[in-house]
Amino acid sequence: MRQISILILLFSLTITVSSKAQESLRDEISYEYLDKLIAVAKKNYPKVKMYEARIEGGQIGIKRARLSYFDIISFSYLLSPSSTFAANPNLLNGYQFGFFINIGSLLQKPSVIKQARTELAALTFEKEAYDLNLASEVQKRYFTYVQHLILLRIKTSSLLDSESAVKQVRYKFEKGELGLENYNNALNALSGQQQVKITAETDVLIAKSSLEELLGEKLDNIK
After folding, report:
1. 200 CB-contact burial (10 Å; exposed 0-12 / middle 13-18 / buried 19+)
2. CA angle, 29 as apex, 28 and 30 as ends, to 5°?
3. What is the dihedral angle through the alpha carbons of 123, 129, 130, 133, rounded to the nearest 10 degrees?
4. 167: left (phi over 0), alpha (psi -120 to 50) or beta
5. What's the pTM value of the predicted model, to 2 decimals?
6. Which candidate, 163, 152, 196, places its Cα nearest to that of 21?
7. Where does the signal sequence lie (predicted)?
8. DSSP code per residue over 103-118
9. What spatial distance separates the first Cα and last Cα of the chain, rounded to whole Å?
10. Do residues 2 and 178 touch, judged by C-beta distance below 8 A?
């Protein structure tokens, strides 16, 4: 009966700590801090920079298409030297200038510019969609990170309770009030809590690393 009482006590303490942590979960989440994380991710993540470079290239393409209007106009000149043998020496003598317009190219320019604008708009919409996906992924990984932090605190508190319970069991065992089996069970329970805490610490590190992958810098550097 005493062994069962000890186990029930440890289980009750764990449930109590867990319930308190769940009640304070929303208090652990800072949406202001989350907005900072999203802004950092949009600034540093390589794929965002790739979209920005493609949009810049699209803007240059529009300018180039507009400037290409000058390509449809060509200029030429001809020098005709004076000749004393000509019947009329004043006819077609000196420089002759000419301007030529490629009508086919002129008609194509509006569609070329429209295509460049359409491609730029498509790139812009694609980047906006990716920004939304990135923000959503940062949010998910931030929530996961906070969740594992809370779970780590729960496991740490449970471990402290187990250590306290083992001290009491050891005291009673040394006084002869509990048998060796009860003492070993308490030690095994403590060992299990220690392993659970190590697993929780690992989960925190993994969640933190996963979030930092999107941020492009250490989470500790973002205040």
Report:
1. buried
2. 115
3. 180
4. alpha
5. 0.66
6. 152
7. 1-21
8. HHHHHHHHHHHHHHHH
9. 52
10. yes
